[in-house]
Design goal:
By secondary structure, the protein is α+β, with helices and mostly antiparallel strands. The chain has helices spanning 38-45, 64-70, 102-114; strands at 13-21, 24-31, 82-86, 93-97. A hairpin with a 2-residue loop joins strand 1 and strand 2 (24-31).
Length: 117
């Protein structure tokens, strides 16, 4: 998957900066479309790949304190905080929420110890 100026399928992702660190930023992403790998492709195309995303450029090439912080995260630093949809039978809104997993909490803690930009 890639970002293309022509002949590509439209994909829209909105984002909000939640917290900034040296070498990393926590974002809240809101995809308006549902393309394969959309969030990963969009962030990589901007030069800011998801931490530990080896396919789209966020591998463990970081140096120094950031490299040490990455040890807390054995996978892509991507988490679905919530998902909302209409129930297929009733049409009633359904919202499912999920707390941040322990490995991503550990990564955040390590990044907070490093400090902000």
């Amino acid at each position: 998957m890639s970002v293309r100026a022509r002949r590509g399928r439209t994909a829209v992702t909105r984002y909000e900066v939640v917290e900034r660190f040296r070498g990393a930023t926590v974002l809240r992403l809101a995809p308006e479309t549902g393309r394969t790998h959309q969030l990963r492709v969009h962030l990589a195309s901007l030069g800011h790949p998801i931490i530990a995303d080896r396919l789209y450029g966020g591998g463990r090439r970081a140096a120094g304190a950031i490299a040490a912080a990455l040890e807390a995260c054995p996978r892509q630093a991507l988490h679905a905080e919530s998902i909302a949809f209409a129930h297929p039978a009733t049409g009633a809104p359904v919202v499912v929420r999920s707390p941040l997993p322990a490995d991503l909490e550990a990564l955040l803690g390590a990044l907070r110890r490093i400090g902000t930009a």
